Model the fold of this input.
Amino acid sequence: MSLPQPVPPSWKDLGKSSNDLLGKDFPFQGFNLEVKTKAPSGVTFKVGGNRAVGSDLIHGDIEAKWLERKHGLTFTQTWTTANALRAQVELENTIAKGLKVDLATTLLPEKGSKTAILNAAYKQSGVHTRAALDIFKGPTFTADTVIGRDGFLVGAEAAYNVTEGNVTRYAAALGYNAPEYAITFHGLNNLKTFSASYYHRVSADVEAGAKAIYDSKSTTGGVALEVGAKAYLDSAAFVKAKINNSGVIALGYTQSLRPGVKASFGLALDTQKLNEVSPHGPSHKVGLSLTFDS
Done:
């Protein structure tokens, strides 16, 4: 008798381990601040702000989230410095076990534009499927499914324009997840862009990963390659490093200063322009991210 299969990752989470290793905790794009608090009533608040390198503008948002666990209901309201109002209502495991539905809306009063996306996700042993309907754009219907068995994963995604009656986008993926490593292959943009990613937990303190992307429509040709690693110095600090085939080296250092307070430092060096002055801004970047979570 076969063992029950675990719930596979969703389509957007295929290759997540490698993407997180190479993409997160490198805050060299500017300066970020995030503060999270929780009221006695259970309402959580989050305030975030960031300033990009070479810019004097500060972008930020304030978010409030209310969770009603008994009925699986979550309501989130966000207001940004661009005067965008976002609202999201989620309902999970209420209509059916494993089913989550939500409605996400955005309103820009100054421009008079609005968006509304209705999402549904269903996950059970061995299958994870999602669907989204962009009500005001098209409308466009998007669906994806991931099937998993014994660590092997197969996924596909497609988008359909209801008004025009045609498929606007499709993609496919294959992968394998093991406790210590994961391999994922993607065929994106109507199978015109291909990527392969690899993640390996070498030991309890060391992780490594790589990602290669080939775009058949690119005018420059070749394959974009990026490799990186992460090492834990102790229970409260870790360092990360990565390099791509363009010669850009990125370094990251994250330190937990105390419970709920975390600081991350990032540095990016373009090794091909170490002694050059770029007219388009600095070739090298440095940044800082602070997170307070009470």
Notes: The mean pLDDT is 92. The CA atoms of residues 54 and 282 lie 8 Å apart. The first strand starts at residue 30 and ends at 38. DSSP finds one helix and 19 strands in the chain.
